[in-house]
């Protein structure tokens, strides 16, 4: 027979993981922003921190579709590249202020995501993935064949942003620290938006579709419309990551639209943990660090990274951050 003291102790021990999970969920946005604030001082270079910030934002957008809605897309590079190209063209060829160019890039990516989503969400499973891949490659070849706008194989250049005016103050955007924290504001906005989505009835709807699409339809959800909206929102956030990349590099490479970039986004999301809120940033960090380290050893670093990725998929299917949360919350 269990003693009352032991029962109370067991009950208290069970409440600790639940309390921790509640706190992490409730304060996930400020905790994530705090971690991002510390990131440039923990990594060996500010450039690496900026890249983690950009690709983490892209992976957050992709995770909304893949991790929370359960749709595997191989075409999200199209939205990243579109956001970057529209921003670069607006600044370089039309002299648009940087903030309006960013808005135009996000809107351009959102419109493309809506069109691609309307076509691809009519299919399911592997057919959905193949349609997104085909449509993304179509965008890639359009950019390749319009060098007067996109620079073709050479990429888009000539739109450097030297200073950013915020609330009457001129900020030197060429300074790595200033650049990081300006771009972090965009990443924070993306995290806040995703958190609001997940806390809304729409967030419950997309997770219901992920778990059982047929049952969600039976419960009265408009599955097609919900998947289309999720696809559009996901592409919009990825386009925001593309605009951040354009401002950072002052250059848009054609490879940003390539299917290999889409594969990299998938890998980052899986490494960090699909359907985990902060996991995409962890995945981006791990992938970029591995790329930096292994590329110093060999030009075939993709083989090493790919092998490690396979091991993660086999033995840590929830990813690094997802596995950590699972262990802590037991």
List the helices and strands and how they pair.
Elements: H1 4-26, H2 28-42, H3 46-66, H4 77-94, H5 98-120, H6 125-144, H7 147-150, E1 163-166, E2 169-172, H8 176-199, H9 201-211, H10 213-218, H11 223-249, H12 259-272, H13 279-297, H14 301-315, H15 319-328
Antiparallel strand pairs: 1-2
Give a quick rundown of the structure.
This protein is an all-alpha fold and 330 residues long. 76% of the residues lie in helices and 2% in strands.
Question: What do these coordinates show?
Answer:
With 330 residues, this protein is mostly helical. It contains 15 helices and two strands. 76% of the residues lie in helices and 2% in strands. It has a two-stranded antiparallel ribbon. α5 packs across α6. The protein starts with a helix and ends with a helix.
| Number of H- or I-type helical stretches | 15
> What is the oligomer described by this structure?
single chain
Radius of gyration: 21 Å
Largest sheet: 2 strands, antiparallel
Strand order of the largest sheet: 1-2
Residue share in β-strands: under 5%
Query: Uncertain spans, ≥5 residues at pLDDT below 50?
Result: 6-10
Helix content: over 70%
* General shape: globular
Structural class: mainly alpha
- Give the distance, in angstroms, between the N- and C-terminal Cα atoms: 25 Å
Number of strands: 2
